[in-house]
């Protein structure tokens, strides 16, 4: 599966700072000092209802991670999946009387278009669950042979008790885990399971549903968590730098995936930092597919909204915060974009070297994009009020905003 085209990232004078970022697993900040190649895995969409503002906020956060690393002169090895076969996708296709593969392809194409418009840097490996099945099957077989998985009516489940580190990503108690498991795709009440939290690794073929040859597992399709594990291990290996996604993925998805990988390899941890973006609300409720209260990037673009303004609206909120999308949020971003573009269009301005360092410092401190925007606002205000004599300043500001914040002025 192909990703989307990459926008050029301008080179800036000097060098950026190492990223200090909040990890859910530690409950606090960790300083990431990767080697020459930084490694990141971000969980992708299940391709229906793409791309809503919650998606955009999440991928914006991890685009900033990449930009901080690139500014330190590192290479970035970024991997993202597409869950192009799963119960919610099949249910939506059935509801809308669509072929599930056509629905997945349509929504994935739309997601690519939105990511391109928003200048999100693409992954080096963009992998669908279906194309990953040949690599998933032997992993499930190995877990079963190791005694970490068991069969139940033809399905194969992972035993969470096989991982001594289970629970060290989300740090939730058993009651909270069970509740979230039921809400987020698990089946804690299924009779016969060794532990109510055990997640499915391989689902035996169901009538009327797609299935693939699973070798000794029989015909079926993979569970949700093992999909990301197989893709991450193939392309990144263990102990990569960042596992990312929305905060609703901390449990069960990232918790289960970590346990799968740790039992499979005997290594700990799967990732150095588990980083989670906050949720976006609309009209007082979390924006979600199930509620249908979605604001789509593609619709805003069709309405004539500049994608740079959408990106500024996202950047105006700290990535870990929960926040609400409103018309005012967008209007403020459109106005800010106009002020910034007017400021850099002048032939000279106040010196901007210090501004570049302010943006770098803000982003290195747990991706504090609101502080970075405030720093640019101060330079813009000086430009509009007093101007300056540095002929290189407007160009430097434009390049810095593009390189570090992904906003083209």
Give me the secondary-structure topology.
Layout: E1 19-23, E2 28-32, E3 37-42, H1 53-71, E4 75-82, H2 87-95, H3 100-117, E5 125-128, H4 129-145, E6 149-152, E7 155-158, H5 174-183, E8 200-204, E9 220-222, H6 224-235, E10 240-246, H7 250-265, E11 271-277, E12 280-282, E13 285-286, H8 297-302, H9 307-315, E14 323-324, H10 327-344, H11 353-364, H12 369-385, H13 393-405
Parallel strand pairs: 3-4, 3-10, 4-5, 10-11, 12-14
Antiparallel strand pairs: 1-2, 6-7, 7-8, 8-9, 12-13
Helix pairs in contact: 4-6, 6-7, 9-10, 10-12, 11-12, 11-13
Could you explain how this protein is built, in words?
It contains 13 helices and 14 strands. With about 400 residues, the chain is of the alpha/beta class. The protein has a 5-stranded parallel beta sheet, with helices on both faces. A hairpin with a 2-residue loop joins strand 12 and strand 13 (about 285). The model has no long low-confidence stretch (mean pLDDT about 95).
């Amino acid at each position: 599966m192909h990703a989307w085209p990459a926008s050029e990232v301008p080179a800036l004078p000097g060098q950026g700072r190492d990223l200090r970022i909040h990890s859910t697993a530690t409950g606090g900040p960790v300083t990431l000092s990767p080697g020459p190649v930084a490694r990141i895995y971000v969980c992708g969409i299940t391709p229906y209802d793409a791309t809503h503002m919650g998606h955009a906020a999440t991928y914006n956060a991890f685009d900033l991670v990449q930009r901080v690393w690139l500014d330190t002169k590192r290479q970035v090895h970024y991997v993202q999946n597409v869950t192009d076969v799963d119960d919610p996708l099949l249910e939506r296709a059935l509801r809308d009387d669509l072929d599930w593969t056509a629905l997945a392809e349509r929504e994935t194409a739309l997601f690519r278009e939105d990511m391109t418009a928003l200048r999100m840097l693409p992954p080096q490996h963009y992998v669908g669950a279906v194309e990953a099945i040949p690599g998933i099957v032997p992993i499930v077989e190995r877990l079963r042979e190791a005694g970490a998985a068991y069969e139940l009516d033809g399905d194969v489940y992972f035993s969470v008790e096989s991982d001594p580190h289970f629970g060290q990503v989300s740090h939730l108690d058993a009651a909270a885990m069970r509740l979230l498991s039921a809400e987020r795709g698990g089946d804690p009440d299924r009779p016969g399971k060794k532990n109510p939290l055990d997640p499915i690794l391989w689902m035996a073929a169901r009538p009327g549903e797609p299935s693939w040859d699973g070798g000794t597992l029989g015909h079926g399709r993979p569970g949700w968590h093992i999909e990301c594990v197989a893709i991450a291990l193939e392309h990144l290996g263990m102990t990569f730098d960042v596992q990312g996604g929305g905060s609703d993925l901390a449990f069960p998805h990232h918790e289960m995936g970590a346990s799968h990988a740790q039992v499979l390899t005997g290594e700990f941890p799967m990732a150095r930092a588990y980083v989670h973006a906050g949720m976006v609300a609309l009209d007082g409720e979390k924006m979600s597919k199930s509620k249908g209260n979605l604001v789509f990037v593609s619709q805003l673009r069709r309405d004539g909204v500049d994608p740079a303004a959408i990106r500024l609206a996202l950047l105006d909120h700290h990535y870990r915060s929960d926040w609400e999308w409103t018309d005012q949020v967008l209007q403020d971003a459109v106005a800010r974009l106009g002020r910034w573009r007017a400021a850099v269009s002048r032939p000279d301005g106040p010196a901007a070297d210090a501004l570049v360092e302010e943006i770098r410092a803000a982003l290195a401190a747990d991706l504090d994009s609101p502080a970075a925007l405030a720093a640019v606002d101060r330079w813009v205000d000086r430009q509009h009020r007093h101007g300056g004599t540095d002929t290189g300043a407007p160009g430097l500001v434009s390049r810095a905003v593009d390189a570090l914040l992904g906003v083209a002025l």
